[in-house]
Every structure is written in structure tokens, then in C-alpha cells.
Design brief:
Length: 360
């Protein structure tokens, strides 16, 4: 394990009984481990004060820039406990790359890859008792960086805080893996050319919430966003990328045009496609092509993918004009196969032929 981060043990960790109760039913995003990694940046010293210290609140001045101008980025990845009790991360190098790209877009300082990885490894080793075993549970890891300088004024901050927290996670959707209904937002867009759509920054999510609320109001679970320029091209969900399977064996996902998030799961599915007899295709897809394809049966399956939910079938798309049901509202063969294949690699049940797993 790297020694870049100094460990200051938590004198008051949760008791074994409290932890066991949480691990038995973790939910998602509700509970956090006993420690967090932190590092500070300023122009004079660069990155410094790297610590893994007791989990707890930050002291932030009310004029801290992030609270006003949202100069902030984050990441999400998981640690998996394998049958022999070893603990593994899935493609953390991809998250490190994306964190760098997000930092550049948000005019935040770049955290070196080795610091990113060391913060995660040190935190996970320190809190290894928090990595659940069995089932499809895991430790969700959330690295983030924000403008912690006390100042009001629009310019890149000169004091920046990096931190990483982690918490046990069970299934992402409360009703388990079942086809989800998707609201197609015709009013709101998530990103525009030249904007921040390809960065993992809080503002993208803040601006998506009204559409997410609209989805709930329509009885849907998630929102599908169209492009910001023409409202014609299918982009992604509020927190997941999308895929379509066609009757002639193509596995299609919207191409990266700078406005959608380059998902680690998306990239992994592209690689897995050919192993399952599918031809991976990255291209633009219009909403009309999508809806017509589902109606005609040319599109046989649709699924969403991301770190939190892995792969989740889409049961229907709902627009102002009504509902279009995918594959009779059931999950499909390839959706199930790809989900299983990804989970088998992540939980160490098959050989990791792509070199995706990183032992902590
Ligand atoms: N799109 C958005 C907007 C997301 O928030 C996420 C989750 N990070 C994804 C796609 C999927 O990315 P990943 O597979 O890296 O989790």
C-alpha cells in the first residue's frame, strides 16, 4: 500500500455491532465508513496535507466559493470483496483519467493519478471491514474536489480541497434489478456543445433534478436527455449511459460528442460486446429512430449502464405522446448476459482477461 497518505485512526469508530447492522442492509448512499481521505491544494504548495482521517464534517466558511459558484467535481467507483477475502477495484485508472478531464474543464488543479489511487487504496485498506462480502454488495467510493477558498467573485479558486469517502452499498434500485421506465425530457436539456456535459461536476446533476422530478411525476424512474442543440439526438440518462440491441446483432450506444459522460461501464460493455456475439457501434441515434425501432421490433433490447446500477434493463420510454414498451417490458437475453459477465469479472468469479481488476 502507498504511504502518500498519513493515517490518523478514528478514535471513535462505529462498534462492530453497529457496522454489522449497516452491512446487513446498507441501501445506497446512506452510510459511510469510519475514515475519509483529504488533501489540500494551493498555488504555493501544490497538493499537501494528504491524510486519511476520521470521517466527519468539513468546516466551511459561508463564503467558500463552491457554495456559490459550484466549482466542484466527483467520481464514483467500487471495491469488491472476492471469495478469498481479497479486495479489488474495477478500472480505477479510468476514473483517475476522467477526474483529470473533469478538473481541467472546471479549472480545478489536477490531482496526480498516484494521489488519486493512493487516497482510495489507503482509505479502503483502513476501512476494509466496511467492504461487504457476498451477494451483489460492495463498497461505493466517492472521490471529489471542491473550491474551498473563502471568497466571493467569479474566478478559479486558489484553495481547493480533495476528499474521498466510502460507504457500503446494496442494490441501487430499491425494487432490485427490474426493467425501469424512462421519461424522455422534451423541455429540459442536460448539456450543450461547449458546456460541461462530459465532466462529472455537480452542476450537471443540479440542472437535471427538475427533469428527474418530472420523471417521478410521470411514474418513471429515470430521465432520458436529448442533445441541447436540436433536441433530436439521444444522449444519456441522468446518471447512466444507454445501449440498444438490434435484431441484426448490433449493440449501439450514442457516440461521445463532448456532451455525455464517458462511462467506465459504457467502455467496458463496448469491449464485452464481441465476446457475446454482438457488433459494438458508437453513433448518433435520433429519438425518432429509437422510438420507431422499438415499435417495429428492430430494437429488441435497451439497457442503462453505470457503476452504481451496473446494467439495468429499460422497460419502456414515456414521451408526451405516450408510452413505448421495449421487449414486452421484460429484460432481454443480451442485457442479462452482459450484466452477468460484468459482475463475474468484478466479483472475481471468472478470469480477468482484460486486466480490469486492481488489487488493493
Ligand atoms: N452518465 C452519467 C451522467 C453518470 O453520472 C454516470 C455515473 N458515473 C454514468 C453516465 C456512468 O458512468 P460510469 O459507468 O463510469 O459509472
Amino acid at each position: 500500500m502507498s504511504r502518500l497518505f498519513d493515517v490518523r485512526p478514528n478514535p471513535h469508530p462505529k462498534s462492530e455491532a453497529e457496522r454489522a447492522a449497516i452491512l446487513a442492509d446498507p441501501g445506497f448512499g446512506l452510510h459511510f465508513s469510519d475514515h475519509m481521505a483529504v488533501a489540500i491544494w494551493n498555488p504555493e504548495e501544490g497538493w499537501h496535507d494528504r491524510q486519511v482521517r476520521p470521517y466527519g464534517p468539513f468546516q466551511l466558511d459561508p463564503a467558500a466559493a463552491v457554495l456559490h459558484y459550484a466549482q466542484e467535481i466527483f467520481e464514483g467507483l467500487k471495491a469488491y470483496r472476492h471469495a478469498n477475502d481479497s479486495i479489488w477495484l474495477f478500472r480505477p485508472d479510468k476514473n483517475a483519467d476522467r477526474f483529470t478531464k473533469s478538473a481541467e474543464r472546471l479549472a480545478l488543479p489536477v490531482l496526480p493519478h498516484e494521489d488519486f489511487l493512493a487516497s482510495i487504496e489507503t482509505l479502503v485498506v483502513t476501512d476494509q471491514a466496511w467492504v461487504p462480502g457476498g451477494g451483489e454488495s460492495n463498497l461505493y467510493i466517492r472521490p471529489f474536489m471542491f473550491a474551498s477558498e473563502t471568497f466571493l467573485g467569479v474566478r478559479p479558486a486558489k484553495t481547493v480541497t480533495y476528499a474521498c469517502i466510502a460507504g457500503p452499498a446494496g442494490a441501487y434500485f430499491s425494487h432490485g434489478v427490474q426493467p425501469v421506465d424512462i421519461w424522455v425530457s422534451s423541455q429540459y436539456v442536460r448539456a450543450a456543445p461547449g458546456g460541461t456535459g462530459a465532466a462529472k461536476t455537480g452542476g450537471n446533476y443540479a440542472s437535471s433534478l427538475i427533469a428527474q422530478q418530472e420523471a417521478y411525476d410521470k411514474g418513471c424512474d429515470q430521465v432520458l436527455f436529448l442533445d441541447g442543440a436540436e433536441k433530436r439526438w439521444v444522449e444519456e440518462l441522468g446518471g447512466m449511459n444507454i445501449y440498444l440491441v438490434t435484431s441484426d446483432g448490433e449493440l449501439i450506444t450514442p457516440s461521445l460528442e463532448g456532451t455525455i459522460l464517458e462511462g467506465v461501464t459504457r467502455d467496458s460493455v463496448l469491449t464485452l460486446a464481441s465476446e457475446h456475439g454482438l457488433q459494438p457501434v458508437e453513433r448518433r441515434i435520433s429519438i425518432d429512430e429509437l422510438l420507431d425501432g422499438i415499435r417495429s421490433g428492430k430494437i429488441t433490447e435497451m439497457f442503462a449502464c453505470g457503476t452504481a446500477a451496473v446494467i439495468n434493463p429499460v422497460g419502456s420510454l414515456v414521451t408526451e405522446q405516450g408510452r413505448v414498451v421495449v421487449n414486452d417490458g421484460a429484460s432481454g437475453r443480451y442485457t442479462d448476459e452482459l450484466r452477468r459477465a460484468l459482475l463475474d469479472v468484478q466479483y472475481g468469479r471468472v478470469e480477468d482477461t482484460h486486466g480490469w481488476m486492481h488489487k488493493v
